[in-house]
Design a protein that fits this description.
There is one protein chain. The chain has about 220 residues and is an alpha/beta fold. The protein has helices at about 5-20, 40-45, 60-65, 70-75, 90-95, 105-120, 145-155, 175-185, 200-205, 215-220; strands at about 30-35, 50-55, 80, 100-105, 125-130, 160-165, 190-195, 210-215. It has an eight-stranded parallel β-sheet with strand order 7-6-5-4-3-2-1-8. The structure holds pyridoxal-5'-phosphate (PLP).
Length: about 220
């Protein structure tokens, strides 16, 4: 199975599940998570028309997309999404490379992103990562602190478009998706980033803007 074959099957699954829940499947976009995947598999997806890709490390993403592969030159309409934790010292590079940031989770990072965007004259779409499972080792803001972070972003002039979550591996993902959806409605944030290879069909009833899909498209990652 090529990445192109997999994308076709996944799109059919998304469409079928979306219809079942009366959701418009055209509003759901696949972020093809290309981290740690071989270049030839990524090329299969590009050739099949996939244009939105997700990466979790800034330096690896720069090497892949702006490096020798020439992917960005050959496919100038690609849209790159940062889905991993971001350190403030990498923000300038991240703002230069990426179009969407899924993982804003603290004030210091918000300020650095806003300053880099102003400096570069470029604006990213920003989502806040919420630690819905209150897991100590996991990135994301605690749900009870979300309102404060949103106020801070508003005060510094950084628009926030939505919320992202990564449910705990040992809990039913649907509960976390429902919770993230509730938070998004409470704060009037239109875009949800949720659903991965193993659980994306459970995210679809909430009409997510982005499903982040890696292994189901490209196969197991190379470490
Ligand atoms: C790696 C990763 C994914 C993709 O995971 P799969 O299970 O391969 O679909 C999605 N989201 C985040 C934040 C990731 O780090």
């Amino acid at each position: 199975m090529t990445a192109a074959d997999n994308l076709k099957l996944i799109n059919a699954r998304i469409e079928k599940t979306a219809r079942k829940w009366n959701i418009d499947p055209r509003k759901i976009e696949i972020v093809a998570v290309s981290k740690q995947q071989p270049g030839e598999r990524v090329l299969e997806a590009l050739e099949a028309g996939q244009r939105i890709f997700g990466e979790n490390r800034v330096s690896e993403a720069i090497a892949r997309w702006d490096g020798a592969s020439g992917f960005r030159k050959k496919y100038p309409d690609i849209e790159l999404h940062m889905i991993g934790p971001l350190q403030t010292n990498k923000v300038d590079d991240a703002v230069r490379l990426f179009d969407v940031l899924h993982t804003l989770d603290r004030e210091k990072l918000a300020l650095a992103v806003k300053q880099a965007m102003d400096k570069q004259g470029k604006s990213l779409s920003v989502l806040i990562q919420v630690n819905t499972g209150d897991e100590q080792q996991k990135a994301g803001i605690a749900p009870e602190n979300l309102g404060t972070l949103l106020d801070y972003c508003r005060n510094i002039g950084l628009p926030v478009d939505g919320l992202m979550c990564l449910p705990p591996v040992d809990e039913p993902p649907g509960l976390h998706f429902a919770f993230l959806n509730e938070l998004a409605q409470k704060y009037n944030l239109p875009k949800l980033s949720m659903g991965m290879s193993g659980d994306f069909e459970k995210a679809i009833p909430f009409s997510p803007a982005y499903l982040r899909l890696g292994s189901v498209i490209f196969g197991a990652r190379e470490y």
